[in-house]
# Entry
Amino acid sequence: MIAFIVRRLLQSVLVMLAVGFIAFSLFTYVGDPVNNMVGQDTTLEQRAELRQRLGLDDPFVVQYGRFLVKAVQGDFGISYRHRRPVAELIAERVPATLELSFVAAALALFIGVPMGVYTGLHRRGFLSQTFLAVSLVGISLPTFLIGILLILVFGVMSQDINAALGFTLVPQLPTFGRGDTVQLGWWSTGFLTTSGLLALILPSVTLALFQMTLIMRLVRSEMLEVLRTDYIKFARARGLSNRAVNFGHALKNTLVPVITITGLQLGSIIAFALITEQVFQWPGMGLLFLQAITEVDIPVMAAYLMLVGFFFVVINLIVDLLYYVVDPRLRADKVVAGGHG
# Structure
């Protein structure tokens, strides 16, 4: 187990070094940092002095090492546009992105898994076919289009629909912003206010829909495959009830690959929340990153890449450890290898 963890940690460090190299390359190949920091009236001597003070005349390896040391300390420099430390900007935006991602992941997991189990156990049922048809929408439509459609229905047309029906069928929900927030130390949360919770609904559903349908289809296919195995047939032959077979044996083995995919998708939710944040003007890291691209704010772009890479590495490490704990075949392989050794 310790050797497994050490090996994964070493792999994680290599991945972060690669991500750091890509992030640092932005400073070299995406414009000149000096040009982004000074005005047109700055003389060549002033520019040269600034380059020397920033260490831009040092060799590439020296600059890269300095960047990594500062990144480990959480220092990503000063934003070209906001003229503030990038770490402060990220710290202000992280709570919004993480809360949105957490709610979207919870919706995808707690709705997608039961739907996948149900469609796997009732393959020919009407409700199962309906779930599969709806899942095609979630997989086929791009995220920004789903968000725009939800805004159209729940933000623009809801009053007209309710007026035509004579009763409230479609609630009117906030279509932009985060609503009211409460400060808990440096963390700002919308979970403790009504407007904050309402503002979460549309963007979290938009972000969760693709992941939910993906998890549902994965669970369904794994469930169908497990139900055809010999040990499930043997369990039925022993006289075990359908409930014990389906949930005590089949579902347990189905969740092994689901854990891996769910962990990877959680990283994807955090990384690709930027489209949803742009559509709903959600004040998170993704919106800050898109604005940084427009304004060529390289320190913010580099910090975002490093942070998202760190999230992916941590999540993958946790998933690998869970996979090691859940799947007895990995432990058995280690025992067999140790016995042969």
Remarks:
- Strands lie at 182-184, 187-189.
